[in-house]
Each structure stands twice: as structure tokens, then as C-alpha cells.
Amino acid sequence: MSSNSRQSWSQKFRHAFRGLKQGVRGQSSFFVHFFAAAAVIVAGVVLRCDRADWYALLLCVTIVLAAEMFNSALESLARALRRDYDPHIADALDIGSGTVLVAAIGAAVVGTLILLGRLGFNPFSGGPP
Fold it and tell me: Which of 21, 52, 64, 97 shows its CA 20 to 30 Å from the CA of 34?
């Protein structure tokens, strides 16, 4: 990345897309989340989710993938800073992984409630309607 703070918009987007490529490439966790996102999208289509359901599902998918990208950035930075073990860096990496876990669990809960609702099951009523 250039140290010039006056980058054109095309340069900024070029750097952003390079970052997206770097974050996705070689990250097995990203592909697991991407596969889960694809499964959610297929389920949403099959179950004919309405507009509000799609908003919630797509927001959850975006949050999980963004959290995974931030975690990948943190891992890359940690590798650049130190090759040997540092407990502070280990804590930061664990916190980054925990962030992805929180986002994924939240998305799974929201997705499950939405998709079960489309099947006619209301988990808050104790069973099917």
C-alpha cells in the first residue's frame, strides 16, 4: 500500500479488493463460513423467505464474514510482528477468534429462528402452531 494519503478512489478500491482476496485466499475458516452462508441462502430460497428475513439473514452473513476478515488481518499482522511466542499476541489472536465465534453463534441462532419459523415452528410457543 502506498504511503501517499491522497490515493484516488480507484486505488482505494484496488487495495480493498486486494485485501478481500488476501483475506479469503488460504483461510480455511473463511471457506467454512462461506459454505454455511451458501447453505443459508439456498434454504432461504427454498423456504421462500420474505424481505425482512432476507435482511436479517444477509446482515448475519455479512457480520460473520467481516469478523473473519478482521481476524485474518489480525493473524497476518501478528505473523509480521513476531515469529516467536508472545503471550500478548496469543491473547489478541484468541480474542479475534472469539469474536468470530460470537458472530457465528449469533448468526446461527438468528438463522435457525428464521428458518424454523418459515417451516411453521415457533420456538417461543413450545411447538408447532
Answer: 52
Q: Which residues of 33-68 are buried (b: 16+ CB within 10 A; e: fewer)?
A: bbebbeebeebbeeeebeeebeebbeebbebbbebb
Q: Is the sign of the CA dihedral 9, 64, 112, 35 positive or negative? A: positive
What does the chain come to in residues?
129
pLDDT tens-digit series, residues 10-46:
999 999 999 888 888 867 788 888 899 999 999 999 9
Domains and CATH numbers, the chain: 22-118 (1.10.287.3610)
- For 12, the 3-state DSSP assignment is helix
* pTM, rounded to two decimals: 0.83
DSSP assignments along 36-84, one per residue? HHHHHHHHHHHTT--HHHHHHHHHHHHHHHHHHHHHHHHHHHHHHH-SS
